[in-house]
Design a protein that fits this description.
Blueprint: E1 3-5, H1 6-11, H2 13-21, E2 26-30, E3 35-40, H3 71-77
Parallel strand pairs: 1-2
Antiparallel strand pairs: 2-3
């Protein structure tokens, strides 16, 4: 996996973009420790959006779901013993 500092990335951006387009996972690092801060990937490899409602019709939530919990259950959810 190729890595480059921010300075090297500015200097060689075209080459790094081409490597990413060729399928390589290019990492951009920062600081003296060269800590990875950014990953360079082609736009087509990242989902543009996630579709909401992909589980629609697979289950049913009744009106009781929106009712407040009984006190004994609420205490359990809050970690107040059994």
């Amino acid at each position: 996996m190729p890595t480059a500092t921010i300075f090297e990335a500015k200097t060689n951006l075209s080459k790094l973009v081409q490597r990413a387009l060729n399928g390589e996972d290019v990492r951009i690092t920062s600081g003296r420790e060269r800590k990875p801060v950014v990953r360079l990937v082609p736009v087509n490899s990242v989902p543009a959006s996630r579709r909401l409602g992909f589980l629609e019709g697979l289950g049913d939530v009744g009106p009781e779901f929106f009712e407040p919990l009984p006190e004994d259950e609420l205490r359990l959810w809050n970690g107040e013993g059994e």
